[in-house]
Design a protein that fits this description.
Elements: H1 4-26, E1 32-33, E2 39-40, H2 42-58, E3 64-66, H3 71-74, H4 79-92, H5 98-106, E4 115-123, H6 125-129, E5 135-142, E6 145-157, E7 163-170, E8 174-179, E9 186-187, E10 201-203, H7 212-221, E11 229-230, H8 235-241, E12 247-250, H9 267-275, E13 279-281, E14 302-305, H10 310-317
The structure holds adenosine monophosphate and magnesium ion (MG).
């Protein structure tokens, strides 16, 4: 088994962060607004603090490229938010000070390099706030390739009825899911085209994160006859990797045609689908570039499929 220590550290810390997120969600979180107008909560910041601390202690030389930073919490009028984040982190890591928590969050301000981690401490913050789906997404990128991906999906329910799932994949070794609360591993396997009840497609809940009209037209063009399943966050990748859908389409929104995707929004999900036998490219069939920058500057849109229908999807897009 490769990346054994990385897997252990990453899995343990994502499970801890998922506990923090669920705790915050029970207490009805409020959103703050970042400079780009997107929402952030104490759970995003607490989750990032916990995961970055664990990674930094275990792998001090690995940069971490994470979505959040502690700037918002260092503002003078944010002392009470700072205290809230520290309160939740303390339930997982007792006796942590606010100063430490801020420093741990800022371990996530690293740059891409030959080996680094990328983290979305809460992917789908809007879903988190709506009591819908969200994910904690962590990936290790080495020599230009995602080697390890972990997705914690605390609100996702498996076909067998467990809520709270953890997806894990290691390059070349396949992937599995396991209940976040512990239990047995289920290998990941994408769906085949003749499994009609599961031959469907997923897209974002947020209409502005894609082009739903075109996504639906493309799905129909490749023979998907049922309406889309709309899900927040990289839980969509988990659903494709579990064989619960054949396709996830994310085409550029007509409102934001120049939007560049963030690596932390796709790296963990991509390896999980690939190791389940699926395929992930941009809308032109180009591999997603996770290694050059924190944004996927040379990619447009994202196409995630069971593999078998991938070429037909790209052809329909042309
Ligand atoms: P989802 O839950 O799949 O809708 O994706 C949530 C992610 O969408 C967030 O983490 C944002 O980084 C990202 N996002 C924000 N604006 C856009 C946009 N215009 N197009 C695509 N993704 C976006
Ligand atoms: Mg995100």
């Amino acid at each position: 088994m490769t990346y054994e220590q990385e897997q252990k550290v990453a899995i343990d810390t994502v499970i801890s962060a998922a506990k923090l997120c669920q705790q915050v969600r029970q207490d009805i979180p409020q959103a703050m607004e970042k400079t780009d107008k997107s929402p952030v909560t104490v759970a995003d910041l607490g989750s990032q603090a916990i995961i970055c601390k664990a990674l930094h202690e275990a792998f001090p030389n690995d940069p971490i490229v994470a979505e959040e930073d502690a700037k918002i919490l260092r503002q003078e009028d944010q002392i009470s938010t700072q205290e809230k984040v520290t309160h939740y982190v303390n339930q997982i890591i007792p006796h942590s000070s606010s100063e430490q928590v801020l420093d741990w969050i800022d371990y996530g301000n690293g740059q891409v390099s030959s080996r680094f981690w990328t983290l979305d401490p809460i992917d789908g913050t809007k879903g988190f706030l709506r009591q819908d789906q969200y994910a904690i997404a962590l990936a290790l990128i080495e020599d230009g390739e995602v080697k390890l991906g972990i997705l914690g999906c605390p609100a996702l329910t498996s076909a067998s009825g467990e809520t709270g799932l953890l997806f894990v994949a290691v390059r070349g070794e396949g992937g599995y899911k396991i209940p976040l609360a512990g239990g047995s591993k289920t290998p990941l396997q994408v769906v085949s085209n003749d499994d009609l009840s599961r031959f469907r497609f997923v897209e974002s809940v947020e209409a502005s994160h894609g082009d739903q009209e075109r996504q639906n037209a493309i799905a129909q063009a490749v023979g998907i006859t049922t309406p889309s399943v709309r899900v927040d966050s990289q839980a969509k990748y988990g659903i494709v990797a579990s064989g619960e859908a054949a396709l996830y389409l994310r085409l550029p929104s007509p409102k934001y045609p120049n939007y560049q995707e963030n690596i932390w929004d796709h790296a963990a999900g991509a390896i999980i689908v690939e190791e389940a036998g699926g395929k992930v490219t941009d809308m032109y069939g180009k591999p997603l570039d996770f290694a050059s920058h924190s944004k996927m500057k040379d990619n447009k849109g994202v196409v995630v499929s069971n593999g078998t229908i991938h070429d037909a999807v790209l052809k329909a897009l042309n």
